[in-house]
Design brief:
mainly alpha, 5% strand, binds (alpha-D-glucopyranosyloxy)acetic acid, Glycosyltransferase, 10 strands
Amino acid sequence: MTTIATQTDDQLIADAKATLIKNDLGGYTVPTHGLYPFQWNWDSAIVALGWLPFDEPRAWEETTSLLSAQWKNGMVPHVVFHQHSDTYFPGPDIWGVKNNPDSTSITQPPVLATVIRQLFEQTKDRALVDSQISQIVQQLIDYHLWWYKQRDPEYTGLVVSYHPWESGMDNSPAWDDALRAVPKVGWEYTRRDINHIDASERPHKEEYDRFLYLVDFFRKMNFDDTLIYQDCPYRVNDVSIISILHRGTKDLLALCETLNIDNKQTAYLAHRMDLTEAAIGKLWSGETSMFHSFDTRSGKLCGARTNAGLLPFFAGLVNENLMPKLIDVLDDWLADQPFAISSTHPEDPCYEPQRYWRGPIWLHINWMITLGLEDYGFFKQAKQVTDASRNLIYTSGFNESFHAETGARSGGADFSWTAAMALYWLL
Ligand code: 9YW
C-alpha cells in the first residue's frame, strides 16, 4: 500500500491541534460547529485522547464534563446539551428530558472506560490523575452496571440497544430490517443536518421518521427502563456496543485492580463478562463468516456485512475457531484498498461509498479494530489498517468520515474525533 503524502507531519499536527482548539467550547469539545453543536458521548471519549499529548488537564476535563451529565441510574447520555443551539435537530425540547445539564435519553457505545485506562496509564502529571481517578472509576462502574442491569435484565449475556443513534452508526444497513418494524412519527419536522451537508451523504427521511418515533416513545414511557425493555419496537443486540462494552469492562476491571478496588460491584461486572463470552457465538453467521447484530424482535441476525462485525477483535471475543475465518474476511476486505475499512463491505448489496454509515470510513472504528488485531498478534493487518487510515488524513484532512473509494471528505469538515485520532494514533 502506498502512502499518499501531500502534507508534512508537522503541518498536520499543528492543524489537528488547531481543530480541537477551534471546537473547544470550554470543558467540552463539539464534534464540529454547526452540524453537531453539543457534547456527544463517544466523540468526547475519543477526543480526550487527542488532547492528551498536548494538554493533559484538558484531556481529563473532557471526560469529567461528559460524566457531569450522568443520570442518577448510572446512564451516561449520548448527547449533552450544555448550551442552546438552533443548528441541530432534535434538541432538548423534543427529547423532553428535564435534567441539569439537559441531555438525550439514550446512550452511546461506552468507549470511555477504555479511554480512561489509557489516560491513566499515559498521563505524566500524576497529581492530576490522583485527584480524580477514584471518583471517575466509581462513575464508570455505575455506568457499566446500568448497562448490564437495564439493558440485559434477563441475563442473556448480550445487552440491547433501543435506537440506531445509540449505536453511533445511525443509518448502518445493519438496522434496515429492524427499523422497518418501527412506525413513522406522525408530526411534521424540519431537519437541520441537510442544511450543513448534502442530503446524498445523510440518512433518508424514512429513517428520520422512525428515529423520531423512538424518541417520542421513550418520552411517552417516561424514560422507564423496564417499560422500554418490554415494549420498545426496536430492540437489537448491537455487536458494536456489545464489543465496546466488553472491552470497556475489561479495562475498567484492570483499573480497579491497580487501584485495589475489589467489591461486590466489580465481582458482578466480572460475572457479566463471563455471560457475554458464553453468548457471543449467537452473533456469528456461518454464511458470511462474520459477526452480525441480532434483532431480538424478529429473532434474526441483521443481514448486512459491516465493520461492526470486526469489533469483537477489540473485545477479545473472537475464539480460536472463528479467528482464521474472520481474518480471511478482513484480508479480503483490505485487498487492494488504498483506503479502509469501509463501514459496509464493498460487495454488500447495501454498500453506498458516500452515505454516512453505509460505506464511508470512520477512523475511531479503525483504531479500535487495530488495537484488537494487535492484541491477537495480527500485526500485518493492524499495520495495513493504520497505513490506510493515515492515507485518509494525508489525502483530505480531518473529516467526519471519508468516501470509501476516493478518500474524499464525507460528512462534516474540521472534525474533532478525526483530529484526535491523528494526534493520538497516526502522527
Ligand atoms: C446525528 C457526532 C455524532 C456521532 C455519531 C454519528 C453522528 C449524529 O454524529 O450522529 O445527528 O446523526 O453517527 O456516531 O457520535 O459526531
